[in-house]
Amino acid sequence: MPDLFGINHLTVSTSDLDRLVAYYEELLGARLAFERPATSTDPRIAVVDVGGDDHLMIVETAAAPHTDLDPLGRAGWGLRVGTYAQLHEVRERVLRAGWPVGEIETLPTQWTVTVRDPDGRPVDVRAHRPRTAPSPTVPD
Q1: Is the whole-model pTM more than 0.85?
Q2: Quick one: pLDDT band at residue 138, thresholds 50, 70, 90?
């Protein structure tokens, strides 16, 4: 059986593709990989690179997207930055742009902040905390 490498893409919907792509590019640092116009059978889509080989596929629909929190009261999905300083920078950029953003929280293995995109969808942005080496065990 082949090894998995991670998540290839996550698909979300929006009623305003241009606005949502701009949000992810300008505030969260994603890059537009490609865009496909609507056809008689398929909606308009954009795919943005969100780091590594991971992508966010955004599908333009007439219906409003689902924007509830997951069963744990969190966003249910998230993006990752490299450091706490970068996480702080993202938070400040989102605040300056006037979009909703929470406080940075410290979790056992990472820091996290929840932002709300233009559709109101919660997105966790996280940075992994440095791991400390376990204490060596002394043999008997």
Answers
A1: no
A2: low
